[in-house]
Design goal:
The chain is of the alpha+beta class and 292 residues long. It is built from 11 helices and 14 strands. It is globular. The structure holds flavin-adenine dinucleotide. The site of flavin-adenine dinucleotide has 29 residues, from strand 2, helix 2, helix 6, helix 7 and strand 10.
Length: 292
């Protein structure tokens, strides 16, 4: 049931510098508003204390996907549809396309942005596990200048971020060169579409020259901890090892040291732990069949 919308101010600055000036002049008073797909739900439910919103939607300085020699630079305003349509992201960051394709429905994909998904800071969000796998860097901007934060250090705790009140996410930077890795992106929810995940896996693996051993591996999960997490122990148990049943068993066992799921309204800790292990095993077994 919808409540009446409370009164609010929406200011649409003419440029990025004007937006940053506004945030710097009254830090914490203006809430950035990108696609609004998270914010409108909260606003309509009367759950937002803020009444002043800074529209980012038309700020082209925050939009667009740029491909350089070493990086793909994804503007914060890039929508899920933009991600799915980008040839560079399809080729080099397929996990991001997988995540975008399973995020909400078409309307949400046309309007929701990757910057909003990150700044909403939900441990159940769908692009963050893929961003962890790709070692993404977050580029932040304010009147004080720009800075970069490794994405695995950006979320400090549940809904807490290394983001000052006067800063905006400007872009997400992903290093190129992992397009040929074997990948898996799996979201387990209550139903096939429009569901928040109970467990989400993004994983990528590179075989060595022999085609039998794991040269490098990245495993990340959503919905199993206060923030999205890399499974460092599970990775270590597989990295440099021959990809066989013993390695898979050790990696899945080590996963128990990486994730700390909780019981909540969407699922139980025991279910999440079990499913996370199953998803990891499924990925590694599938990779075994690709090993020569
Ligand atoms: C029907 C529906 C289905 C959904 N399904 C999914 C799903 O399957 N998976 C999933 O992960 N999410 C889902 N979402 C959530 C939402 O669509 C995403 O999180 C989306 O990416 C948010 O982007 P936005 O641009 O709409 O953010 P907004 O709602 O505009 O903002 C979200 C938060 O980010 C902040 N923010 C936005 N941009 C910036 C910036 N550049 N710098 C700093 N802060 C910023 C805002 O202040 C706010 O706190 C769904 C939402 C709806 C309504």
């Amino acid at each position: 049931m919808r409540s009446d919308l409370p009164d609010f101010d929406l200011f649409a600055p003419e440029s990025l510098p004007a937006a940053l000036e506004t945030l710097a002049r009254e830090p914490g008073q203006w809430r950035p508003f990108a696609g609004g797909t998270d914010l409108m739900v909260l606003l309509e439910a009367g759950k937002l204390p803020s009444a002043r919103y800074l529209s980012l939607w038309h700020l082209r300085e925050l939009a667009g996907i740029e491909v350089t020699d070493n990086e793909i630079v994804i503007g914060a305003l890039t929508t899920y549809t933009d991600i799915m349509e980008s040839r560079a992201i399809q080729d080099e960051c397929p996990l991001l396309c997988n995540a975008a394709a399973e995020t909400g429905g078409v309307a949400t994909q046309n309007r929701g942005t990757i910057g909003g998904n990150i700044a909403n800071a939900s441990p159940a969000a769908d692009t963050p596990p893929a961003l962890l796998v790709y070692d993404a860097q977050i580029e932040l901007i304010s009147v004080r200048g720009t800075r970069r934060v490794a994405y695995d250090r950006f979320h400090l705790g549940y809904k807490q971020m290394d983001l000052a009140p006067d800063e905006l996410i400007r872009a997400i930077r992903v290093t190129r060169g992992r397009g040929r890795w074997l990948t898996s992106w799996r979201k387990v929810g209550t139903r096939r579409a429009q569901a928040i995940s109970k467990v989400c896996l993004a994983a990528a693996l590179e075989l060595d020259a022999s085609g039998k051993a794991v040269r490098d591996i990245r495993i990340a999960f959503g919905s199993v901890a206060p923030t999205v997490v890399r499974a460092a122990h599970a990775e270590s148990a597989a990295r440099g090892r021959t990809l066989n049943a013993e390695t898979i068993a050790k990696s899945c066992e080590a996963l128990g040291r990486d994730i700390k799921p909780i019981d909540d309204l969407r699922s139980t800790a025991a279910y999440r732990l079990r499913v996370a292990g199953n998803l990891l095993e499924e990925f590694l077994v599938a990779a075994t069949s690709r090993a020569s």
